[in-house]
Amino acid sequence: MNSTTINPRGTSPKMPLRRWIKRITSNYVVRMMARAIFTVWFVTSLIFFLVRLMPSNPIEVYINELIVQYSLTYAEARDQAASLFAIDLDAPLWKQYTDYMVQLAHGNLGNSLRSPGTSVWQIIVAFLPWTLFSVGLGLIISFVLGVFIGMLLAYKRQALWEPAVSGTASMLSSIPNYLIGIVLVVYLGVQWKLVPIHKMRGSHSPGMQPAFTWAFIMDIFFHAALPILTYVLSTIGSWILSMKSSTIGTLGEDYVTVARARGLSEGRITTAYVGRNAMLPLITQLLISIGFVVGGSILIENIFVYQGIGYRLLSALSTRDYPLMQGIFLIITISVVVSNLVADFIYGWFDPRVRIAGGER
Amino acid sequence: MTTSLELMPKAGIRYWPGRLIRGVGRFLKLMSRNKTGFVGFLIFIGFVLLTTVGTWFVPPATSADISAIYAPPSWKHPLGTDSQGKDIFAQIVHGGRDILQMALLTGIISTFIGVALGSLSALIGGGFDAFLTMLADIWLTIPRFPLLAVLATLVKLDNMLFLALLLSVLSWAGLYRSIRAQVFSIKERDYIEAATALDLGMWHIIFSEVLPNMLSYIAISFTFGMTSAIYAQVGLVFLGLVPLTRNWGVMINLAWTQGAIFFKDSVYFIMAPVMAIALFQLSIVWMSRSLEEIFNPRLRTG
């Protein structure tokens, strides 16, 4: 026993190390995490260099603005700009870049240009939860409903109402989401006056204090109702159609026939055999759509004047508040990357093949 | 077989109008196999005619008419008038060309990028393929529309060709993935092996051996490129980030900011461009079904 642990120095200490490295690099979780971190770094760098290398360099624009507005000298304006952007303008570009990255790693996103004294981080913390809430709830409702309706359509292919539902689904899936939002405002709010559109603006009523009370929760849902409805309507069509075709494909599989032959109850076959397998390809779609819907929130939130991150991004863009813009874009990217990561793990949980053969794929 | 081959050049030169008509007829017959696809195709052609030929017959709505603000539809104004008394129908006719050209241009460029990178990646393989695949995976997680919005504040996006190029570059990853997967499956077939053995060259293999066998995928990716271009362009214009001459997106923006949220009367002003864009998008999606069937005969039924 003892002789195996005390090895002569030579080849053996290397072997476990290499095996450890291989085990770490081929690990599904580690690979996914590494890719997520790399993506965030890539996007951050992309935006950093885009902002600085563009012909209309926003820092120079801001310096000129200060000179004109407050009649400062160039040096004063430059100092002020440098402190606001939290960078050293005299340093070479690579130094600015590493400084920016170090600041980011410490969680420092700089200060807003247009609301002085407010850090970008504070603004993001105030606006991001509303977007995550409305987009997340909208996607979950639409996914669950869509999967259910899609399976129903696959089982009732002969029904007379089937083409009508499929047709509506294909129409909804090909109309841009902001047009659906506009139609909702124009018809529900203005033409038919079914909902008080002006009262529904904002993420919650003015003066309402965030608290875990019934009134506050009702208020949140009242204000988020139309954005959520838009997210549901604009994504449900593709869930219905994909689930329908996926279920039809699964119904013809041998294991479903075998399950029937074994005399399993139809309910168990539908949920555990057909449903679970038919949903697999949809989960990959779900992770791609998260990014698309979060990105689309800039349009939807401006239609409903819903104060989420997309709404704030547009106002940062139109007032040329670059640090804020950069920070919000980074946060949107991170939330998309994280939700993709979560979706990847869920996918691994649903489909064990991914977990086991992760390194080989 | 041999006789028809000998006859072809002569007949081709002498009777080319006849052959053209016959070709168009065959195309229409194939298109009409799928009813939804054919309806989409007809609507699409209708839009193309409306925004090209239509502009010769309908004078542009330039003069404001204060006596006819928010007029309901009539013979004189088929879709009513806007907040300045201008004819909405004329604005629809003249405001579509921009969007159609943009969509076609983006469709062509993005399909080209996707096909070129996808087939190169699958045929070369190795490190090149691994690198591009990784880049595509990352690219797909970048929120595209916010990036476009950010870019719109840094560069002036008023040049149509530049905007089309930008949209294509931003959306290369999705197309690349599907084309690459397709080429991978085609690559293993015998005729590609034969062409490789004959040393026919990479570009010959891509364009004469691989491409014709995945035309249905290319048709789909082309229509997809068009719809996402329309989504992005109209979205940017609606947010007021891209300055463009009067088109459907600008109409929505104007109608929205000038009172669609307050006045009941402005319903035609806002709904006309909304319906035009929605219908145009639908027609492209529907048309893609027919195209898919034409290029992929296995899908044809009956």
Describe this structure in words.
The complex is a heterodimer of chains A (361) and B (302). Chain A is 75% helix and 0% strand. Chain A is mostly helical and 361 residues long. In chain A, helix 3 runs antiparallel to helix 14 (322-350) and helix 7 packs across helix 12 (266-303). The longest helix of chain A has 38 residues, at 214-251. Chain B is mainly α. Helices cover 74% and strands 0% of the residues of chain B. In chain B, helix 13 packs parallel to helix 14. Mean pLDDT of chain B is 81; it is low at 1-12. At the A-B interface, helix 3, helix 8, helix 9, helix 12 and helix 13 of A face helix 7, helix 8, helix 13, helix 14 and helix 15 of B.
Lay out the secondary structure.
The complex is a heterodimer of chains A (361) and B (302).
Chain A: H1 2-5, H2 14-25, H3 28-53, H4 58-70, H5 74-85, H6 93-105, H7 120-155, H8 162-174, H9 177-191, H10 214-251, H11 254-261, H12 266-303, H13 309-318, H14 322-350, H15 352-356
Helix pairs in contact in A: 3-14, 4-5, 7-10, 7-12, 7-14, 8-10, 9-10, 9-12, 10-12, 11-12, 12-13, 12-14, 13-14
Chain B: H1 2-14, H2 16-31, H3 35-52, H4 54-57, H5 88-94, H6 97-124, H7 126-141, H8 144-154, H9 160-170, H10 172-187, H11 190-197, H12 202-210, H13 215-238, H14 248-260, H15 267-295
Helix pairs in contact in B: 3-15, 6-7, 6-9, 6-10, 6-13, 7-10, 9-13, 11-12, 13-14, 13-15, 14-15
